[in-house]
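Researcher: Going back to the complex we discussed earlier. I've cleaned up the inputs and rechecked each line, so this should be the final set. Can you rerun the prediction on the complete assembly and write out the structure?
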Amino acid sequence: MTSAAQDFQPIDSAVTPRFAEPATFMRTPYVPDRQGVEIALVGIPFDLGSTNRAGPRHGPAQIRDMSRLIRQVNASSHIAPFKLCRVADIGDAPVNPLDLMESIDRITAFYRDLAGKGIVPVSAGGDHTVTLPILRGIVRNGPVGVVHFDAHADTLDTLLGSRINHATPFRRAVEEGIIDPKRTVQIGLRGTRYSDEDIQYGYDMGMTIITMDDFEAMGRDKVIAATRKIVGDKPTYVTFDIDGLDPVFCPGTGAPEPGGLTMRDAQVVIRGLRGLNLIGGDVCEVSPPLDPSGHTALNGANLMFEILCVVADSVARGRKN
Amino acid sequence: MTSAAQDFQPIDSAVTPRFAEPATFMRTPYVPDRQGVEIALVGIPFDLGSTNRAGPRHGPAQIRDMSRLIRQVNASSHIAPFKLCRVADIGDAPVNPLDLMESIDRITAFYRDLAGKGIVPVSAGGDHTVTLPILRGIVRNGPVGVVHFDAHADTLDTLLGSRINHATPFRRAVEEGIIDPKRTVQIGLRGTRYSDEDIQYGYDMGMTIITMDDFEAMGRDKVIAATRKIVGDKPTYVTFDIDGLDPVFCPGTGAPEPGGLTMRDAQVVIRGLRGLNLIGGDVCEVSPPLDPSGHTALNGANLMFEILCVVADSVARGRKN
Amino acid sequence: MTSAAQDFQPIDSAVTPRFAEPATFMRTPYVPDRQGVEIALVGIPFDLGSTNRAGPRHGPAQIRDMSRLIRQVNASSHIAPFKLCRVADIGDAPVNPLDLMESIDRITAFYRDLAGKGIVPVSAGGDHTVTLPILRGIVRNGPVGVVHFDAHADTLDTLLGSRINHATPFRRAVEEGIIDPKRTVQIGLRGTRYSDEDIQYGYDMGMTIITMDDFEAMGRDKVIAATRKIVGDKPTYVTFDIDGLDPVFCPGTGAPEPGGLTMRDAQVVIRGLRGLNLIGGDVCEVSPPLDPSGHTALNGANLMFEILCVVADSVARGRKN
Amino acid sequence: MTSAAQDFQPIDSAVTPRFAEPATFMRTPYVPDRQGVEIALVGIPFDLGSTNRAGPRHGPAQIRDMSRLIRQVNASSHIAPFKLCRVADIGDAPVNPLDLMESIDRITAFYRDLAGKGIVPVSAGGDHTVTLPILRGIVRNGPVGVVHFDAHADTLDTLLGSRINHATPFRRAVEEGIIDPKRTVQIGLRGTRYSDEDIQYGYDMGMTIITMDDFEAMGRDKVIAATRKIVGDKPTYVTFDIDGLDPVFCPGTGAPEPGGLTMRDAQVVIRGLRGLNLIGGDVCEVSPPLDPSGHTALNGANLMFEILCVVADSVARGRKN
Amino acid sequence: MTSAAQDFQPIDSAVTPRFAEPATFMRTPYVPDRQGVEIALVGIPFDLGSTNRAGPRHGPAQIRDMSRLIRQVNASSHIAPFKLCRVADIGDAPVNPLDLMESIDRITAFYRDLAGKGIVPVSAGGDHTVTLPILRGIVRNGPVGVVHFDAHADTLDTLLGSRINHATPFRRAVEEGIIDPKRTVQIGLRGTRYSDEDIQYGYDMGMTIITMDDFEAMGRDKVIAATRKIVGDKPTYVTFDIDGLDPVFCPGTGAPEPGGLTMRDAQVVIRGLRGLNLIGGDVCEVSPPLDPSGHTALNGANLMFEILCVVADSVARGRKN
Amino acid sequence: MTSAAQDFQPIDSAVTPRFAEPATFMRTPYVPDRQGVEIALVGIPFDLGSTNRAGPRHGPAQIRDMSRLIRQVNASSHIAPFKLCRVADIGDAPVNPLDLMESIDRITAFYRDLAGKGIVPVSAGGDHTVTLPILRGIVRNGPVGVVHFDAHADTLDTLLGSRINHATPFRRAVEEGIIDPKRTVQIGLRGTRYSDEDIQYGYDMGMTIITMDDFEAMGRDKVIAATRKIVGDKPTYVTFDIDGLDPVFCPGTGAPEPGGLTMRDAQVVIRGLRGLNLIGGDVCEVSPPLDPSGHTALNGANLMFEILCVVADSVARGRKN
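Model: Rerun complete. Updated structure for the full complex:
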């Protein structure tokens, strides 16, 4: 593995067929000691923040397995992330499946350590709660912008009496000053709501909310332009709740909401983020027990690759500066 | 259950998690005695009218289960049906799985009783035959208009020698004078046909047929406008055969026809029916044995909710007049 | 529902087919106010005590659904539990999917209330942690005997640093003086272990451990005789972790261990408990996301029925005394 | 196809791989005109007699597909049925999925025609109702003996008000004088019952009922000996409801009852029928929608092969006499 | 079967329900001796050219089964192929699952024989390698044009050291002079690539490549117009790799690439080929083990029907000239 | 990874939950450079020797994933293999999915290299062909004994014209002098056969064949005793074709044969091999596409663990001598 880690290239599928060898994210080398890594692919096998159907704890494993299908170059943007940066699978963030708060703290510490080493993370959840400890760990110099794909705003104050769960991370992150609501864009919101006030917090804080109705009215190009304008050239994080997609693309998720984004929508918009100042990203809420076929995880793996491409492009550009 | 029935609110998912308690439609109270109910959510576990793959008899059970995911407010239209009306799950219409004609008669009587009590039904089938006994039961003062989403016209004269089955209900209803073909719109027709004459009856009777080719050529806004114009402000019923959707949205149905509506199409068009004089609606042909994942039933539950929203809006407006 | 609750008979499947109406346990009346109930069928949708694959939170829903297949009379023992006692589905114990300890306390209070009303519970989990709050709630006069079917002893001191989880309930229960280890029999233990000491606590405390090797060497008759002798005629509780069965009978469980009991084994041994002084029972660890076919839940429902039969027989005898 | 029909040998899997060519029963030639056929393999795609979960209408198709795995010789009995007799797939009996009684009549006529041509049928259902029209069609000279594997007696008088359904065929057959209850053996009965009287008719008529409790107490050898003695050397029919097996062997069936026969039990007992005077047989209640994996149909196909072996042996011996 | 073959009409589903009788492509008569056949529906159960997930060897069987749902007339184009031409299922091309090269040769010979008899093939793969031996067999007078739907160009020189596999057929066909790259259109290309040069060969040879980005930018009408112009009125072959579709339409394929064509896209574009000089077509890469639900095969069957319609139209026109 | 490799202990599931981190066999360290390894767990992702349903190429991946459930100590034998020996996952043997013979040669070379380093392999297939190159690689000093669990003898001369496939390995191995037929025991043979001569080669060569009929007649103890006597104390290899089990235990295999071994049978017999001179073992024919639930792979992982236990015991004893 030493040599693999040295040149940081994925297993060559023209030599070793895709079904062979233990699965790592996109067949990248497994480098748990993180030596030389610029971009870390990380799993967060956590779902204690789920209030309905559990399962995303198994997300990293199935995304790793389905990411065997990913090759090296993005056919649309021509970005070749493994050429641009030293990318590796560094394993999973530590969690305790019996303790929500301890897990949050352990994940935070894990990402803080990465940030201290200058490693940029692209992560696979886990339920959407995990974006909070990721951001707690990696945000160091004031609040960051966020491009947030989701069916739900995840800005409730509490759910079932709890302040830390998959319905609240972006409210907590605003309160803690780690994300800037005025540089936050939420894309794809829709579905039934507990009350008409469910997403009011975002509007009140100055978030830009592009519901599915808005998305369709605007069209992709305007969505991309608006997003780029809002987050600007300051540090920005990308988070993709798989349920931002229409459920046909993610039968394996806990809270599917019909009438959502297509994979094509998601791919085009993420590609449109190229050139931004990106500090990392994640894909969350892939729940393998609800989709043993792996179709949801395949989409998750592809979204993770799209995010990796624009993040690697950003990291490579940053390196030159 | 008395108190639940009194205030007619669904179980509060911020107190009782979605996976708990026996499943009723959208977590509404189960009120088999119908006391105080304005809008009844009804299951019709019947599929003896199916000529190919059976299974919709299990539709109500799986739709109930997946409707746990429905919340209280429509995020696009802001309609809150459980605030507007007293909505309850009143259980299933009676059927005999060994006797087609007896079942039809029992279903008819069940709906006639509801109509006599002034209760408006929103139903979950069952195969599409059930729309006939529903209409026989609830239509009292001359033929009604119909908005009919489907891949198939369901206006054959006979199939396999039978006049009552899931390929014939709308022809029978025209013949019986309970629907007005000139106020009937069929949306989404497509697929292979037994003969080029399969849907000619509708054209001959003056139905408005918007095939998938038409739908795409017109666009949603024109489809909505045309539909509203045709049905006008007289009593109108909404019926949604789940196979009106593309099969990716309904793998669990008996006669899937590729190239159909998206859930987004369906949601937008149903929302466009707001303000019409709606007397009820149904979602049919969800076949759980063909989709144990529940993805089809999830879409069915969401369509049922969309229909409920516009029906509740209509009922509430009617109450004021 | 009032009349149903009055005579406490399940829905008659010779009138209303099995696939109709909302699912309750064994089609018994749903009586959330518990009026007149002697034996309560209860769901506990809790799985925060799971350390690997989650899912049993959905157990009660799927067991209710598959229990539609249960009829009224036990063909082997001829016990007709719904004739012997007033049996009803009283809904689910309250839980908070975001808080393990709060859930345990709420479940305990729920069962304490039942015990206070003299209602005997037969429950469907939920992971095996739930047997602890059940016993905390219902044991009032000193420790009870336990007949415990399982692949695992569930007597670890801690797992992942936690004292309350699905690997520890019977140790806690001994420590708390609510079960009598000398009147406890564990049947079916097997599988790989963390260490050779995993089940030593049980031996040390005087539990009777019948491993699969022992079970096979003894044969069912001797297992029954030994069990009856050990628990004697004092109050005894029956708990069945579905993974006591061979995984072919329970693909939908979190910790399957090949080489286990057959359903026939389980049925015969439970029937062999007839005549004991039984204060309740449960079936745990049915995990629907891991078995959408419902085969595991079908077996769970049948085991629940077998336990109900011997419990109802005990309750009815106790009533006479 | 002419040549295939002439020598009546299955497709040779050492030349044409198992996954190739349209599926026929056991890869035998498809001979819908029945010319030269001695033993006909027949499908009966009928399930209108089902009172709960439908699906056996698809049984013949899936059994055909899984029977690709069957080879030519029985490894235990060394019977090579395709060498002993001219065996062919003659297609399916005619049915009308919209008309129970018409279907029964058409099936009866179909089998009567076979009997008239001296062709012995081995059939794949279909729900268990189909054994009645089969027997009506083929029994010509007084009542025949029956070896009946099942979890249920299927001797109710009526169910849901109907006299013809999958719970009644053997009562009707006794009443019509086409089976001799004193030469009828029912093997594997168990499960929950509507009432303690459910199977009393069989006892009253003199049927031999070997419940699962009896089966286990007797052991296979005594079961075989008793069965052979009871049916004697007069014409006997074999009917196997797949739910006679434990549900692990038949997840794809409508009324599974845990605690049943193993495939090994079934194989050994059917092999033990060799030498009897067998006039045909069937395997029923395989429901593909409930088991898309085909595992149930695989067992169905193997049971059909076992029955074919003993029937072919009987036909070949009869030919010599 | 003789009569069926004589009039070459599919089984009439208004007489024989869809689930009955052995499955042939679109219920056409099975005519392995090919007498009188104009258009042959052929299966090629071959997948030795797959480099990742196998399974297409089972494609013909599942496509046959799902094609039971196809009726006789195309609702959009009104083409009735079974009226236009004598269409039959002639069985499967011969293969050896243990020998890639022998299989290729046997398939080639099989198609050469068809071509010699003037029979036009519409085939169901098999992996995409099979288009090479099909073309080798049927192309006689110089290179033909190709309309090629796919996520991948399939024009690599070698993969895993092999020149014959599912990543190379169109390069080999160009080299062998059986297809004309200047009359070849590739539609739907996208996804991750081994290198940025993966599809360069096509550009270099003068193929017209319409990537998904191009497709969306052009719109369907321009894609159709461009395709018609490029292939002109000389002989043209249509080949559809099911993975040209978005994976929601083909979960059962070996190399799914998110962001692809919808079924509606595919239907409209294929219908747009009407009037071309079409010499055959195929649908490949349906992998049943990866989609037991049959949804992928249903789409495959419908695409095969769409191709059949335009091919039959071409054959019928050719006949008149 | 260095430290993990140094102490060669599996990931401690009391610290890192089972669902976390990339999957290796039984969570052992991944040591592709093999430094310090005594027993290598190896995957062989090869299935080009399959003549019917493919898929075992994915076996190693799914067995790795399901082996997360394995703990450290055998509860019956008390063997703790990771304490006895330095056990590691060394990755997969090299294969070419486009070239059967090249794959066989590469696998042979891989195992020859292991043998040269004194590393004992316990492998996960792959189809059963792989046992031939394993044995070619590791057998050095004359033929070895074999304990072979299987439904099939795998001693045909050729199948489909090929001498190297999953139906022939043990005949080839006898011919090549690498296994000693007189020290070979085949356990579990049954099922339908191509001809009555299918397994005659084994009898002729002096193999001991314990068919399922024999197995049942003898009982496990006699089977163990006979096996131990036949293989004696000379070097012996253990190979387990998963289809030796009844299909309920292995729905995910290519050639299931009803009426086979239970997992309990297999566990007890393998444990009975303790004390023999074991040089390695394998588990083959797990086909994940046919069982996405992982149940088959779970059994495969457990059998691999059972074999590992007796092999580790043998290696540890050998080390002392």
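Model: Worth noting: The radius of gyration of chain E is 18 Å.
Researcher: Good, that matches what I expected from the previous run.
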